[in-house]
Each structure stands twice: as C-alpha cells, then as structure tokens.
Amino acid sequence: MEHAPMSTTATAAMAAPATAPQTLRATLVAGTVAATTEMLVVLPMQVALGATPAQVFQSITSGLTGKAAYFGGLPSALGGAALHLLISLAAAAAYVLAAQRLPLLLRRYVVCGLLYGLVAYVVMNGVVLPLSAIAFKPVTNLPMVALDMVIHMLTFGLPIAICAHRMLRRG
Asked: pLDDT tens, 31-42?
C-alpha cells in the first residue's frame, strides 16, 4: 500500500526533538501569550459586571489565601497576576512537552488547541477551584458556562497551541 508523501510542514514538525532552550522559549512565549490573551477578554467582561481589575486579580489570589485576598490591596492583586501567569506557564509547559511526543498536537494545532482550552476549563472548574481556599460555587447558568468554555478554548488553549506550533516546528 502506497502512502501520499507528507507535506514539508508535517515532516518538519516531526523532526528531531526540540532542544531544552527551544522547549523553554516555547513554554515562556505560549504561557505569556495565553495569560495575556485570556485577560484581554476576561478583564473587560468582569469590569462590565462591576469588578475592578484589582478585584479580578485578587480573586485569583483568593484561591490560596481565601477572603483575605480582597483586603490585601495592590500586593494581593499583583500576586493574583503572578499566579495567573504561573498557571498559564504550567499549562503551556504541559502542552509543549506533550507536543514533542505527540506530533498530532503540532500538525492539528487549531483543533488540538481548542480541545486543550476545553480541558483547561474542566480541570480548573472541576479540580483546581473546588480544592482552593475560596468558597467555590460552580456556575450553573448554561449560557455563562458555554461562554466560559469558549473563552478558554479561544483565548487560552488556542494561543498555546499556535505558539507551540510556530516555535517547535523546524525546517
């Protein structure tokens, strides 16, 4: 049985494994882009709902410190921004490392990125938030759940996959 030749891009994406500096660079870029892209959508939505940007980031800190985060002022808000970036970097590292073993993640990066955003939503809402120090109450409003899923898919998972694709392909 004869197979059609692979495209240059597909062949390049499956070339030798990335070096440690390439892996680190891809992780740093993908995580930073995803953290920023997500907040470019989330912050204006939260402000429209009555929260301040500081409160949005303090709410992230509250995952570690509980309600005290809302009385911590700027340091608490900056801590939330740092935590958001750290979580995004961890998610990017997981995708970048997986993509080096599963070339499909680089070849089909759009679909895989969208699915990765959905996985990130499920992990955050099904594992991380329930285990956090906040009084987590799952969102049950179906349109809001759907919107949150789409935001994670488009502004978190997809940017990670695009960055990994662009930075790990060779040739």
From this structure: 999 999 999 999
Residues in the chain: 171
Spatial distance between the Cα atoms of 74 and 71, rounded to a whole number of angstroms = 9
Domain assignment present for residue 143? The answer is yes
Q: Is residue 160 part of a domain?
A: yes
Instruction: Quote the domain boundaries for residue 53.
Output: 19-168
Assess if residue 48 is contained within a domain. Answer: yes
Tell me how many domains the chain contains. Answer: 1
Q: Which of 44, 17, 32 is nearest to 163 (CA)?
A: 32
Three-class DSSP labels, the chain: CCCCCCCHHHHHHCCCCCCHHHHHHHHHHHHHHHHHHHHHHHHHHHHHCCCCHHHHHHHHHHHHHHHHHHHCHHHHHHHHHHHHHHHHHHHHHHHHHHHHHCCHHHHCHHHHHHHHHHHHHHHHHHHHHHHCCCCCCCCCCHHHHHHHHHHHHHHHHHHHHHHHHHHHCCC
Structure tokens at 124: 């955050």
Low-confidence ranges of the chain (pLDDT < 50): 1-6, 8-15, 171
Is 82 within the bounds of a domain? yes
